[in-house]
Backbone:
């Protein structure tokens, strides 16, 4: 078992023939991911990386049976790409694109809300189920197969955590990069819930950062769930200056619980094993798994 | 991107939001000319001279003053322009004032009392929707209101599929205790304000105060506007509104080089790929007994040119006693980064602080050998903790 993506996922790449899409689709195929084609409007009928190119996501769904997409479309067109995927019936929409205007994401999030699909990201490294499917931009070799799930807002910090877990002789079921934007499709809580409910996952690493309420929500859900599966947590940004990214009025809405210190306090109170040093994530996972 | 009050008001006015009118001036003479023009256009006899800097609390620092005649306009404008304005939101040195807004007096006496409200438009991150936050307590620090009288702060969330509905605008006007002409004016004001927020791709509007004048007009007397940087590709006309004088010069320079840099007060500089890992590295520096001197994300391509640019930016800060480079090489190979560090180090020639390089990921071993055999005063590490220990050692 694993979550979100596996060897049976039928994956397409939106923004397939662009430079980012081409490079990372190549890496995904090399990893052994089941990439069934890609979408670039106007290039339908061509072949790229030995895979068919479609004009629309709908064509890719109808002709290649696609159920999962990874989006490399530039920021100005990315929200449209997300909505096109949702409209075509894609179930898992993984959006790598960084820099999508918030106004566009409000519309996209609202559009997909009542459709049967899950958005991961945007501005995320993607999702990897080691040995089965790499649907993202992460270095595949870092992620060895195992029993630890990872949820993280950050790219390289996810690789760091996975590397530490693997060096402890453990491995990864699925690593989910949820993204660092103000509006993301899958929250920390939802990603943690997926992994806690995955029978193969025996422990979860949850990596967050300053700003927003996502980690607190996840921690409160975890406590209420009564799950015995251990979670190891880390929050980046204890030394980050206040108010640099959040507006004056936004700070009121955020309340007092979006600093690293406050988040860690809530997480500890909810039974999460929080480490203060990012160098101790792997060690702590080993310890809690006994 | 933060805007000056006068720029924010221009945007509001372009969407039909009523504003306190004003003309910007760069010196006392321009201020007098602006005052004369305003008097002829609006009939105002008094003028408010307002320092234009990116900081709140300007009145408290003496940056907003009333002028009752042209001599006072000249004198006050002359006094404010060029001053270092210190407010609760600036550093102790304050911010240099380059220009003032000469504005009409809107607190004139009339048929009713004036009243001040607070209003902001922003994203509610937990619901992914925009909301209007407002209060009867205008003209005050909203954080104080939130602390002392939270029941006087209201919010109105907007469904993105239909936008702000008339009943919501009415609810806001009712909650603010308005009636008659002022009530109608407020519903128009709120609708226009929300349209302006969405159409301008802003990430924050803060109007404090929103004024009900003595003749029942509703207008924005101040405006704090932040535009979503990611939307600037479709607002070419807004790009010129950026005032680089208001920003940290090292951060501006780093931005021009494509480096995401935030200046901090500590003694250990750092250079990292990825924002999350960069923050984690700062935290690790603190735990090793140092204080981070900066946040710096070099991004995905850490080649010699970028590493050199990053070195130069970090070393502009005289407090830096050591530099920690932490790169997790995924797609980018560690040996390439190591060579980049070595080349940059040699090109610079005069780096006088110890450097700790931690490279992990693709070809990390080759990278460590490259660093160790370079003959340079650079310490290498592969594990995160090892890097922290070396930082601690060089600071001791």
Residues:
């Amino acid at each position: 078992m694993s979550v979100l993506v596996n060897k049976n996922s039928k994956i397409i790449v939106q923004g397939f023939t662009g430079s980012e899409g081409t490079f990372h689709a190549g890496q995904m195929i090399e990893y052994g991911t089941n990439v069934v084609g890609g979408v670039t409007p106007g290039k339908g009928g061509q072949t790229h990386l030995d895979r068919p190119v479609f004009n629309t996501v709908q064509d890719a769904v109808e002709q290649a049976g696609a159920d999962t997409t990874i989006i490399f479309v530039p920021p100005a067109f990315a929200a449209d790409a997300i909505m096109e995927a949702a409209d075509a019936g894609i179930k898992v929409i993984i959006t790598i694109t960084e820099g999508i205007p918030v106004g566009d994401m409000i519309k996209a999030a609202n559009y997909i809300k009542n459709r049967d699909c899950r958005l991961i990201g945007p501005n995320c490294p993607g999702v990897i189920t080691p040995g089965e499917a790499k649907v993202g931009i992460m270095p595949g070799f870092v992620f060895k197969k195992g029993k630890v799930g990872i949820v993280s807002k950050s790219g390289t910090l996810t690789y760091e955590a996975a590397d530490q877990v693997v060096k402890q002789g453990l491995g990864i079921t699925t690593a989910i990069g949820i993204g660092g934007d103000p509006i993301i499709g899958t929250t920390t809580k939802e990603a943690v819930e997926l992994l806690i409910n995955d029978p193969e996952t025996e422990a979860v690493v949850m990596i967050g950062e300053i700003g927003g309420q996502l980690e607190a929500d996840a921690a409160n859900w975890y406590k209420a769930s009564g799950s015995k599966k251990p979670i190891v947590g880390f929050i980046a940004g204890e030394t980050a200056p206040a108010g640099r990214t959040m507006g004056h009025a936004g700070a009121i809405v955020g309340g007092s619980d979006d600093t690293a210190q406050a988040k860690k306090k809530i997480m500890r109170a909810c039974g999460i094993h929080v480490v203060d040093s990012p160098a101790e994530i792997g060690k702590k996972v080993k310890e809690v798994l006994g | 991107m933060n805007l000056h009050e006068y720029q924010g008001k221009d945007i509001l006015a372009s969407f039909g939001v009523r504003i306190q009118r004003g003309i910007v001036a760069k010196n006392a003479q321009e201020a007098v000319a602006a005052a004369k023009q305003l008097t002829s256009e609006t009939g105002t006899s008094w003028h408010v001279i307002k320092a234009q800097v990116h900081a709140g609390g300007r009145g408290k620092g003496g940056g907003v003053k009333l002028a009752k005649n042209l001599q006072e306009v000249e004198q006050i404008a002359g006094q404010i322009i060029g001053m270092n304005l210190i407010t609760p939101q600036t550093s102790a040195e304050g911010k240099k004032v380059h220009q003032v807004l000469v504005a009409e007096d809107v607190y004139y006496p009339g048929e009713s009392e004036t009243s001040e409200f607070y209003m902001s438009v922003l994203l509610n991150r937990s619901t992914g929707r925009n909301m209007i936050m407002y209060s009867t307590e205008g003209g005050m620090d909203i954080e104080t209101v939130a602390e002392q009288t939270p029941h006087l702060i209201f919010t109105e969330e907007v469904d993105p599929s239909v936008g702000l509905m008339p009943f919501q605008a009415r609810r806001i006007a009712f909650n603010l205790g308005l009636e008659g002409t002022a009530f109608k004016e407020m519903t128009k004001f709120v609708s226009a304000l929300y349209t302006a927020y969405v159409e301008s791709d802003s990430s924050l509007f803060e109007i404090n105060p929103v004024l009900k004048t003595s003749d029942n007009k509703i207008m924005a007397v101040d405006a704090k506007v932040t535009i979503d940087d990611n939307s600037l590709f479709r607002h070419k006309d807004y790009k010129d509104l950026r005032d680089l004088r208001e920003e940290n010069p090292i951060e501006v320079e780093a931005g021009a080089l494509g480096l995401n840099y935030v200046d901090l007060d500590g003694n250990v500089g750092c250079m990292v790929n990825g924002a999350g890992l960069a923050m984690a590295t700062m935290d690790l520096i603190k735990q090793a007994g140092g204080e981070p001197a900066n946040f710096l994300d070099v991004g995905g391509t850490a080649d010699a040119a970028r590493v050199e640019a990053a070195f130069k930016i970090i070393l502009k800060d005289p407090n830096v006693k050591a530099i920690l480079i932490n790169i997790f090489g995924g797609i980018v190979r560690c040996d390439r980064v190591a060579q980049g560090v070595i080349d940059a180090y040699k090109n610079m020639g005069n780096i006088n602080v110890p450097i700790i390089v931690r490279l992990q990921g693709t070809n990390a071993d080759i990278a460590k050998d490259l660093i160790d055999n370079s003959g340079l005063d650079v310490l290498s590490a592969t594990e995160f903790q090892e890097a922290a220990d070396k930082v601690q050692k060089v600071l001791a």
Observations:
- The radius of gyration of chain B is 26 Å.
- The CA atoms of residues 356 and 379 of chain B lie 5 Å apart.
- DSSP finds twelve helices and 18 strands in chain B.
